Every structure is written in C-alpha cells, then in structure tokens.
Amino acid sequence: MARAAARLLGPLGLTRERLDTLWIAYGERPPGPPPRRWRGLTGYGRLDIAARVLLAALYPRGRLEEDSGLLVYLGSERPAALSLLPSCLPGEMEYEHESAELLLRVLRGEACRLLDPAPPLVELLRALRARGYRVVLLTERGGRLRRHRRGTAYVLGLRVDPPRGLPVDEEASVGPCSYLASHVTAYVNALRLLGGARA
Questions:
Q1: Domain boundaries, the chain
Q2: 0.85 exceeded by the pTM?
C-alpha cells in the first residue's frame, strides 16, 4: 500500500514528511481552457473561491504557513489537481488578485504542480490515509470541530460539496449553517493557530 500511495502522491509533491495541515478544496472542472485573466476565474468553475481559500489556508497572517499545503481538486470525467506546497509559493501574499494570478499560472503549468489527469478523489484520499494523514471532511452534517490535530487533511467544497461516500476518518462542522469556504478555512486555521477550542 505504501508504494501505491507514493506512486499516487509523488506527482503532487506529497512524498516527503507529512505536513501539519493539508487542505483539499473540491470543485468541478469546467469545459474549455483556463481564462486569460484572473478575473475570469469567476466563470471558470468559481475558482475565484479557491483563490480566497488559498489566502485563508496558507497566508492567514499575510505570511506563508511553512507547514501547510493546498490541493485544488477539480472533479470531472478528466479530473485535475493543482498542488500548492510551500516549496513553490512566495513568502508573502495578501490580496486575492495575487492568489488568483498564481492559480492561473498553475492551471497553465507555469508554477507549482498541475496533475492532469489526476487520480480519482477516492484513490487520492486513500493514499493520503496510507501516508498517515487523518482525513476530515468539513460538512454541515458533521459533529462540531473542536481542535486541530497535526497531520490532518481537511476536505471542503468550493461551490459544490465533495461527492458522498469518500474514505474519510471523520466528518466535522464549524457550525449548523452553510458558510463560505474561505470562512470555514479561516475558522479551522484559527483553531489550529490558537491550539483548539474550549468545549
């Protein structure tokens, strides 16, 4: 199983030591090529949401979180995955136009890693679990998330929920309502940075 996991995760750059936090933002891959300008990400599978999640996940204080990474998984008949790990990211980022421009460059194969086609999401999550990640699906249906544990991969939807029946260790929620993906990410990061929450 370890070799199979390494084969799946190697092209995404995830074969080294486990990250403290891995974010997996799930969206749907739209037809056609990526837009020419970053503002076009709104009409390209709502990847403008992924640009905001990138900032909330990896730059909560404007500086890169060196022990966190983001996979943007675009499901379709031919899925793709954008892998954004600390080794390919700038040290500082504050504005959505910066993160959107970076996503565009990844989609064009000019920065970080683009895996096209990507393995099915189910296989990817199984490989992460085999590498020792604890996979948590962030959903309104889950129990209340109270604290962060090192080596957790958080799966959340961008505009649409991830498919049901994924191989996860836990379903967790930040509250009973529907929240923006970037707000959920910021909440979980606050738990992580503050060391948990009181019961």
A1: 2-194
A2: yes
- Beta pairing partners, 138: 172
Q: How many Å apart are CA 26 and CA 71, to the nearest integer?
A: 8
Nearest to 153 by CA among 15, 25, 59: 25
How far apart (Å, rounded) are the C-alpha atoms in residues 107 and 92? 21
Q: Which of 77, 70, 101 has the alpha carbon at shortest distance from 28?
A: 77
Pick the CATH number of 2-194 from 3.30.200.20, 3.40.50.300, 3.40.190.10, 3.40.1280.10: 3.40.1280.10
Q: Provide the b/e sequence for 153-179 (b: ≥16 CB within 10 Å).
A: bbbbbbeebbeeebebeebbbbeeeeb
Q: Rounded to whole angstroms, how far apart are CA atoms 139 and 141? A: 5
State residue 122 phi and psi, 5-degree precision.
Answer: -60, -45
Which stretches of 25-113 are DSSP H helices?
Answer: 47-58, 96-107
d(CA 65, CA 181): 18
Summarised one tens digit per residue, pLDDT across range 85-144 is: 999 999 999 999 999 999 999 999 999 999 999 999 999 999 999 999 999 999 988 899
**Inter-residue contact 178 to 140 (CB < 8 Å):** yes
